[in-house]
Amino acid sequence: MRPLLLFVLPFLLGLLLRLGLVGLELPFWYDEVWTANFAAFRLSPEAALSRLVGEDSHPPLSYALYRLWAEALGLEDPLTHRDPGVERGLRILSALLGAGTSGLTALLAGALGASWPAALGAGLLYALAPAALMREAEVHVYPPAAFLAALALLLWARGRYWGFALAAALAFHAHYLALPLLLLPALSFGAKGLLPYLLFLPWGLHAVPLQAAGLPDKSPFNGLPEKALAQMAAFSHSPEPALVAVGAGLWLLGLLAALHPKGRLPGLTLLLFLGLWLLLLPAATGFNAYSVRYVTLPLPLILATAALGLSLLPWRTAFLLLGVPLLAWSLALPLTTRDYLAFRSPSLLALPLNLAPRKVTASSKPLGGVLKHVCRPCQVSLWDGDPGSLREGYLVIGLNSLRIAAGEHPHLLPLLRERARLLGEQGQILLLWVRP
């Protein structure tokens, strides 16, 4: 009965929280539109593969899972208008996978030797973790990848080689960071542990060199490393000091587990992964690999090893150290909801445009992609930053893009004051009406 509860309680909490965000029925943001292209927009397999290799930086399995889910539920984008039912249906798969990862985290902690209360706490923490909650209420590659990586780690901890090999091979085809995360667990099985890596070779040899060549161009999307490091420490897009302190404590507990015989292998697994992720990957590719979004993959291992470390302490101390992050992340739920809304600022701004569709100019390709998804009747084009090219219609522009353009063209701001009217603002995005 206890193993069942160990899975079910975190699963139910994780599902409830994720469905709460899904239930807001906010329109897709850019990354979700991109993922939905492979699921609900019905690209042919050939076109999907070509686009993945030529434009994306992920392996194909997560996209294929969303495609199968969409086929099973009959989720197909109507092309003529945004369908909230399609968005909700695709996000439900993410929520189910995230809830499953919550339960797997608790089972992983138990399999590593954590006490039952500490293992349960690890699962509940994953359910509440801001970074995981954000990612697993949207259509993205991370929910399938985190689930498969957690499943592989659990099967490794239980000594189930064939199950581990299958789950690891699937995880490698869902996200490339699963490769370093599962390296030490694979080697613990001896030479046969390399089987998942051999199974990955066909895709790796075909796609990775082409995708890696484009990685430096994608670095700006991850923001400044110093800001990302604070977010990674806090497991949140809003690195409030209290969340940074709580998150740093969990990181520390997870890493210190390597000092104890029971936690040596999982602790060293985490240390090796961090070195390969944060040091080797940027050095080898020129890619800025610092982003809180990637924390979702090692998070089950971090929390499971932290739970193992707590189990080695006196129970009163362990109870206190476990209660603090549970309370902090519970209190941070409104903050997580705010961050979830912030990512969809351009989408929310674009919704009213359906009432009076006109020509829309976007300041960047991601903004343009969102606008085309949300306002299908609108004629969307990209702005080159030249004030002389502005025409009558809507202008959707990020504040950072506006600052850059104003620095290059000093007469831009006076021109906008004369010809533009502010219609709305969401987060760092402005909606303007530009008259002739």
From TrEMBL:
It comes from the Bacteria. The chain crosses the membrane at residues 106-129, 141-158, 164-187, 194-215, 242-259, 271-292, 312-335. Keywords: Membrane, Transmembrane, Transmembrane helix. This is Glycosyltransferase RgtA/B/C/D-like domain-containing protein.
